[in-house]
Design the sequence.
């Protein structure tokens, strides 16, 4: 529009000048002056036209929301990312990120125990790089042993990132793209550190404590902490110590197990045995100290089963109780106790045991004492335990010399009631 306006103005000026030129005077000087003005007017119009023919330069206008054009390498999506790449490339990328002070880690990881259960308090991320550099798991008050890192059952040794895509490596050379549904599984064995201490009375030796390993008893080194895997029962066998002043002496003090206690609330179950020797199963929940306490108990016990191997009751319980035995109801046993002072010295240390009675119609044909079967000596001509009044049989079950004697018998139409007396001598 400005261009056309300038052209119109130029033509109006030309017509004005032409009108003035019609009023020409005779004076030559005036004619010359008009000619000069006419030429200046033509020059002026020419300048205007030249200006109009030059292209106009417009100032560029920036858009309100400029669009940033990214480098094509940064526009690679996870779908476009290569399925494999070298671990070296991941290492170079990791170094570049570290130089920029950026955090290099991923939350595509799960920390589990050997049973596959999540570990409470474990991190939610793992740093990029070699797994060996980041495998330690530290949680206050707990201990963990690293077992493996796997992706869908395959061992993993490296984890890295390239252009927003996570890669893992099973050999440390080639890295494989971690698919969307996949994650690293870090597996650990949790364990507890356990100490065992004994409270031992005066003149008592330390007890014998072993760990059950199947059918074997393995001695424990109690000078150091013992590792026990979490979730596993720790089974120990405990035998009290002996009298240091009278070793292998029937008159020596006797010590028994008073208690087995956990400092941190472990579950302790007596699996078998008694105060003289017992096996305990312990389930720990944290680091712990087990205290085993012994006490003096100068009472010895002798028990006899009241039923035979077929379940038939052969002991006359009322008559045996009358002789000094105690009936252990529910255990099918009779028991007699004695103290070291009941042991007397003659040719050695000896002890007389009260007689026990058999039911009528029964006789004892075999006896086992401390795991040893009692048999008659070859000189006596008797092939079994005594069956007649006055007969005696001597045997050596373990460290004892045992004399068994039939002291009396009662004969009725219902059969005989045998009375058996035993004498023990320590050898």
Sequence:
């Amino acid at each position: 529009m400005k261009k056309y306006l300038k052209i119109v103005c130029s033509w109006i000026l030309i017509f004005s000048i032409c009108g003035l030129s019609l009023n020409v005077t005779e004076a030559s000087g005036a004619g010359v002056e008009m000619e000069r003005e006419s030429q200046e007017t033509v020059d002026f119009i020419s300048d205007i036209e030249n200006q109009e023919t030059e292209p106009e330069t417009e100032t560029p206008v920036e858009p309100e929301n400029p669009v940033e054009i990214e480098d094509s390498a940064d526009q690679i999506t996870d779908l476009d990312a290569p399925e494999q790449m070298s671990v070296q490339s991941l290492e170079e990328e990791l170094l570049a990120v570290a130089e920029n002070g950026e955090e290099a880690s991923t939350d595509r990881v799960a920390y589990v125990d050997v049973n596959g259960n999540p570990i409470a308090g474990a991190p939610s991320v793992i740093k990029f790089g070699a797994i060996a550099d980041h495998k330690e798991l530290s949680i206050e008050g707990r201990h963990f042993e690293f077992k493996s890192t796997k992706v869908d059952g395959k061992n993993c040794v490296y984890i890295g990132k390239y252009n927003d895509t996570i890669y893992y490596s099973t050999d440390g050379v080639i890295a494989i793209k971690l698919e969307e549904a996949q994650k690293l599984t870090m597996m650990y064995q949790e364990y507890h550190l356990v100490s065992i201490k004994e409270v031992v009375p005066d003149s008592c030796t330390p007890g014998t404590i072993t760990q059950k390993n199947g059918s074997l008893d393995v001695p424990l080194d109690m000078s150091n902490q013992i590792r026990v895997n979490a979730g596993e029962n720790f089974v120990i066998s405990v035998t009290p110590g002996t009298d240091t002043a009278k070793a292998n002496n029937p008159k020596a003090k006797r010590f028994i197990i008073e208690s087995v206690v956990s400092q941190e609330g472990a579950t302790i179950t007596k699996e078998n045995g008694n105060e003289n020797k017992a096996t305990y199963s312990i389930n720990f929940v944290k680091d712990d100290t087990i205290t085993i306490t012994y006490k003096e108990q100068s009472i010895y016990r002798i028990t006899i089963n009241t039923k035979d191997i077929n379940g038939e009751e052969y002991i006359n319980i009322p008559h045996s109780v009358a002789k000094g035995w105690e009936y252990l109801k529910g255990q099918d046993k009779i028991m007699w106790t004695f103290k070291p002072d009941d042991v007397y010295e003659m040719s050695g240390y000896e002890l007389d045991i009260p007689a026990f009675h058999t039911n009528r119609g029964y006789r004892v044909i075999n006896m086992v004492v401390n795991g040893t079967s009692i048999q008659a000596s070859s000189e006596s001509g008797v092939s079994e335990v005594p069956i007649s009044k006055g007969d005696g049989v001597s045997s050596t079950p373990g460290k004892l010399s045992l004399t068994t004697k039939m002291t009396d018998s009662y004969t009725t139409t219902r059969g005989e009631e045998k009375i058996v007396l035993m004498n023990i001598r320590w050898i």
